Amino acid sequence: MPLRSIPPALAAALVLAPVLLLAACAVSPDLAQPPTVYIDEYVHRDFFPQSTVTPADQPAVPQTALFFPLANRLGMRDAAHVGQQLSRVFWGKWLQLKVFDTMPFAEGEPFKDPAKAVARARAAGFDLAVGGEFTYLLFGGSAGTSTVSLRLDIYDTASGELIWSMAHAGTMSTDLTRDYFVFATKNRLPTEPVTAIVATLAEDLGKPVREWNWFKEEERKKNPQPSPLDDPKPQPKQ
The domain that contains 56 carries what CATH number? Predict the structure, then answer.
C-alpha cells in the first residue's frame, strides 16, 4: 500500500489544523456555514457517503454523543497521533454543523473496541458512541495526490446496537493541490490537503446524521402544539 511516513513538520501542522479550521470560520460571514462550503470544490469524491446501516426511526429528542478518535491501524510513523489529530479535524467540523447538541472528544481513547466504547459512553451518560477508522491515508503534500478513506460507526448506548455505519473517501489531485495551496494561504486555512479532505468528508457524513438527529425537534418547531392555556374552553353563557 503506497503509504508515506509523516515528516515532523507535517505532524506539527496536524496538531494546529483543528484550531485553524475552526478559526477559518472568518472566511464566511455566516458562522453556520463551515469553510468546506468553499474547499469541497478541491476535493474529489467518487460517490456519496455509502451507508450500510441506518436507523429505522428518528429519535424523539436530539441525542448526545461521545466522539472517539478514529482508529488508525495503517503502517505509518506516529499512526496513533496522526489518527487523533485528523479525528479532531473531523470532530471540529461536526461541532460546527451541530450534528449533536453535546459531543465531547474522548481524548486519547481511539475507537478500537466497540463494546468498550459503548460502555464508556453509557457510563458517562451519553446516548450514542461515535467512532470508526481511517482505512487509507496518502499524504501527497504540495506536489502530489492526497487521499483519505474512512469508516464511521455510531452505536446506541442503551441497546449497544450499531445504528449508523457509513464509508466515504476523497482525493485532492496534484493539479488541484496547487490551486488549493493558494486559496488556503489567502484564507488562513490549513495548507495540508489531507486536513481539507477530512473536513469535507466530515461535512458530507454529518449532514444526514444531523438531519436524522434533529428531525422531530425541527418538526415541533414548524408545527407547535397549542397550549391549553392559549386556547381556553369557551365559558357557558349566563
Answer: 3.40.50.10610
